[in-house]
Amino acid sequence: MSRPRHARQDSVAQDRGGVLASRLLDVPVEEFARDIWSRRAHLTRGRRDFADLFSAEAVDELVSTRGLRAPFLRVAKQGQTLPDSRFTAPGGVGAEIGDQIDDTALWRQFADGATIVLQALHRTWATVADFAATLATELGHPVQANAYVTPPANRGFDDHYDVHDVFVLQVEGTKRWVIHEPVHPAPLRDQPWTDHRDAVAAAAHTEPVIDTVLEPGDVLYLPRGWLHAAEAQGAVSIHLTLGVHVWTRYALAEQLVNAALSDLRDDPAMRAALPLGLDDPTEHLSAIGERLTTALAEADPAPTFHRVRRSQGRSAPLGPLAQLTALDQLTDATALRLRDALETRMTGDRLQTRVGWLDLTEQEQPAVRRLLDERTLTAVDLGIPVARRLLRAGVVVPVEVP
């Protein structure tokens, strides 16, 4: 990742009031949650530019000096995604992997009107990663980040919809956005716009809900399913798309059913074979349905839900050398803080986190619970053995001295 650590801390410190309220909305968060979230598109003008998050210089650095590979970049032109072979090549001696970005080939595609899509910036660019992690915590839903870099008077993709909510942050240049209401409201992850291609094409010729040009500092919120197409205006356009992969009631229903089926797996009667020579299972369905209904009523989907939720995000970065130094130089006065974005959860005497779990003794639990509340403690407050254990597990990190 790029940008000095102290600069990232300064950026985050400015937004401690909440990035949703301070950077993305012109209405109170409560109003957004009640009237807008997952219901309708919303345009916010000029809250604050996003030069602290991303820039043209960041694009050039990622493309030309980072050894970026194709999964983290794609190219679109005239509504089509180009094959990776059109802009990738081996990197020479010691870097022969063939799917690395070829900056010359990429430049030629861009000069010919193609849009560069930098994917998963929440993994490759520190300031965007910090911002996305903070937003995910506020929303309670996982957030990914992409950047779209479009040459003047070009569009990367035709009218389509996404299967996740998005916040569009205009970084540089201007881009015209044309928005239509959904043809398939609130699509699930496995219901892409291509399943409704004809309806999408027809809707694109109707009167739009929003037809506007975004300028640097503008933010557009679109719930999943809302149709959109965007075209750069008189200069190169750079925008960030923060994709919110919302948890749905359907997803919770899946977790509930999976928990119930897991219970049925442990029931010998449900594992028993149906009668020999069976032609029609109808007479067995009533009893099976009753047993399934009971299992659903008794099922607890929470453990699976929390496990899946932890798997859908990433904890804050951890430096192995800094961690080893903290272990080697640990004293009573060493300040340690809970690693960000761990999704910690105490279940009985077990501490569940994104980086694994720890079973805690009765003596260890009070200090760890205090850490979860206060987030920062000295090693003596935790107890040196507990502090060492948490450092080794990657649950705490040393507090940096300014």
Description of the molecule:
The protein has 402 residues and is of the alpha+beta class. It has three domains: 5-244, Jelly Rolls (Sandwich), CATH 2.60.120.650; 250-300, no CATH class; 320-398, 3-Layer(aba) Sandwich (Malonyl-Coenzyme A Acyl Carrier Protein, domain 2), CATH 3.40.366. It is 37% helix and 21% strand. The protein contains 16 helices and 19 strands. An eight-stranded antiparallel β-sheet has the order 1-11-8-13-7-6-2-3. It has a three-stranded antiparallel β-sheet with strand order 10-9-12, with no helix packed on it. A hairpin with a 2-residue loop joins strand 15 and strand 16. Helix 9 (249-265) crosses helix 11. The two termini are 20 Å apart. Residues 1-16 have low confidence and may be disordered.
Main pleated sheet: 8 strands, antiparallel
Helical content stands at 25-40%
* Major β-sheet strand ordering: 1-11-8-13-7-6-2-3
Reported by name, the CATH topology of the largest domain is Jelly Rolls
User: Nearest-angstrom radius of gyration?
Assistant: 25 Å
Global mean pLDDT: 92
Quick rundown:
This protein has 402 residues and is α+β, with helices and mostly antiparallel strands. The protein has 16 helices and 19 strands.
Descriptive labels:
Malonyl-Coenzyme A Acyl Carrier Protein, domain 2, 8-stranded antiparallel β-sheet, globular, Jelly Rolls, 402 residues, 16 helices
Topology:
Elements: H1 5-14, H2 19-24, H3 29-36, E1 42-44, H4 56-65, E2 73-77, E3 80-81, E4 88-89, E5 100-101, H5 103-111, E6 115-118, H6 121-124, H7 126-139, E7 143-150, E8 165-172, E9 175-180, H8 197-203, E10 210-214, E11 219-222, E12 227-232, E13 237-244, H9 249-265, H10 268-271, H11 282-298, H12 302-311, H13 320-328, E14 335-338, E15 345-347, E16 350-353, E17 356-359, H14 365-374, E18 376-378, H15 379-382, H16 384-393, E19 396-398
Helix pairs in contact: 9-11
